[in-house]
Design a protein that fits this description.
Blueprint (H helix, E strand, L loop, with lengths): L1 H13 L6 H14 L4 H12 L3 H14 L5 H10 L7 H4 L5 H8 L2 H14 L11 H12 L1 H12 L7 H44 L10 H28 L1 E2 L1 H7 L12 E2 L7 E7 L5 H14 L5 E7 L3 E3 L1 H6 L2 H11 L7 H12 L7 E6 L11 H10 L2 E6 L13 H4 L5 E4 L3 H16 L3
Parallel strand pairs: 3-4, 3-6, 6-7, 7-8
Antiparallel strand pairs: 1-2, 4-5
Length: 452
Amino acid sequence: MEQTLEEFIQALRKSDVKVSVAEALDAYEVADFVGLEDRTMLKDALSFALTKNKYEKEIYDAAFDRFFQVPDFHSLQQESEQSSSGSCPLSQAEKFDDPFIQMLLQRDSVGLQTQLLSASRRADLSDIWLSSQKGVFIQKIMREMGVEKLQQAVKQAEVGEKGYTEEDVVQLREAQRFLTKQVRSFVEEQFELYAPVATKQLREEQLKDIILTDAEERDYLQMQQIVKRMADELSSLYSKRRKKAQRGKLDIRKTMRRNMSNDGVLFDIHWKQKKIDRPKIIAICDVSGSVRDYTRFMLLFLHSLHEVFDDLHTYVFCSNLVEVTEEFENNTVQEAIRRAQMKVQYGSTDYARALSDLKEQHLDHIDKKTTLLFLGDARNHEEDPRVDILKLVRDRCKNLIWVNPEPKVRWGTGDSDIYRYKPFCDLLEECHTLNQLEKVVEQLLQLSSRSG
C-alpha cells in the first residue's frame, strides 16, 4: 500500500498539486486508518490530507479516478467468451509450463491485473509524456510481463512441437490479442493521467524564456497564470522571511538569566527582536508607443505585484503621470489594464514631464521607507531627461530600481537615456522574459524588505 500511495503522491505532484512531506505523512496515516476496502471513503479522506483549495481538489479527483482505475480484464474476458475462442479449459492451459501463459489462457483477472501493474512500475510508465511513446511503453510492459515466452509458445504450436494442436495455436493467438488490447488500453489511461501535465510544464518552460514580443495571443492567458503563480510563491516566501526577521535571533544571555530559577531548563525563551518596517513601493510604468509591444506585459507585471505587496502605489505615463492604484487593486488584470490605458493621454514619450509631475505632486510621499520602481525604455526623443529630478528622488528614497524591457544591446542607442539614469539606480535590469521577471521580483523583495 505504501508504494502505491507514494506513486499516487508523485502523480499529484506532476499534476501541479503541491504536496509537502508533512502532507504525505498525513496521507499515509489516513490510508492506514481508513483502509483500501472502501474506495469512496479513501478518496474523500485522502483529499482532506493532500489538497488545500478548490483548484487542487479538481485535479485530485481526476487524478485519483485515473490512478486507481484497475485494469478491466473482466470486460475483455466477456468479449473473448462471446467470440469463437474464449478461455480454454484448465487441462488445456496446463499443457503450457509458463504460469503467465496459463493465466492468459484462463483469463485470470486478478493475476493479470497484478502482473500488469507490477510490469508498468518496472517499465517506468509514469515517465510517459508524448503520444509517440505509447507504442514504446506497450512493448516494454509486455516484455516485462513475459510476452517473449508467449510468442515462443505460438511458434512452437505452429510447427506442432510438444504435441501442440491447431486449437492450441488459436487459443495462444487469441491470448496474445487479448493481452495487447488490455495493455494498450491501460497505457492510454496512464497517458491521460501523466502526459497533459508534462506537456503543459514543457510549454511553460518554453514560455518563460520566450521574448514577450514573440509570444502569440493564444499564449497570453497561460503566461498570465504563470505570473500569478510566481506572485503567489514569492508572496509566500516574503511572508516567511518577514516572520523570521520579526522574531529575531535567540538572546542567549537573557534566556539563561531568566531560566536560572528553573535549574537551567529553558522554559522562558527570549529573542533579540528588531522593528521591521513594512516596505512601501511606488511603481511608475511607461506605456508610450516606443514600448507598446511590452506594455501589456509590464502592466501584467504591476498587477502581479499587488498580489505581493500591501503598500504599492502604481502610476502610468506617456507624458503626464497618472495614478492607477485603485484600478489595479479592485479589478481583474484585463479590466485593470483597460482602465489604466484609458486614463493615459497618449503622445510622444516625455520622461521630463513625468519626472516633473513626480516631483511636484508626489515628492512628499517618498521617504526612506520607499522603494521607487521604474518600468520603461528611457527613450526620451532627444529631450532633457531631467536627471536632476531623478537624483533628487533617489536621495529621498530607500532604493531606486529600473526595469528596462529592451534587450541590453539596444541600451544607449539612438534616443535612449538609460545610461544617464543608471548612476542613480540601485538595480538596473533588462526584463523581457518571464524568467527575468521572476528574478526582478525576487530582487525587489530583497531590497524593499532589507532594513536600513
